[in-house]
């Protein structure tokens, strides 16, 4: 069995406890990721974002390339709701 760049057949016996501790930490981190709820990504229109933020829809179209929550789908522009809500909350503080 190999883990990353480590060949378990060549790990010196004295280093096995440390290696097992590292392996347990990796395992715990991966289990924690599996137990996290899968985020639901919801998309909305630019008109929705404009209404929620009080900005014009033109603002979102003109700044689509610099706003991280805006995604282009061909000619269509969609808004990632989670990203928008974080951005809008920071903007209003």
Question: Quick summary of this structure?
Answer:
With 93 residues, this protein is α+β, with helices and mostly antiparallel strands.
Structure write-up:
The protein is 49% helix and 16% strand. The chain is elongated, with a radius of gyration of 23 Å. The protein contains 4 helices and 5 strands. The model has no long low-confidence stretch (mean pLDDT 89). It is of the alpha+beta class and 93 residues long. The strands form 2 sheets. Strands 3-5-4 form a 3-stranded antiparallel beta sheet. A two-stranded antiparallel ribbon has the order 1-2. The protein has helices at 16-35, 46-53, 57-62, 81-92, and strands spanning 2-3, 6-7, 43-44, 70-73, 76-80. The chain has 2 domains: 2-35; 43-92.
Structural descriptors:
93 residues; alpha+beta; three-stranded antiparallel β-sheet; two-stranded antiparallel sheet; 4 helices; 5 strands; 16% strand
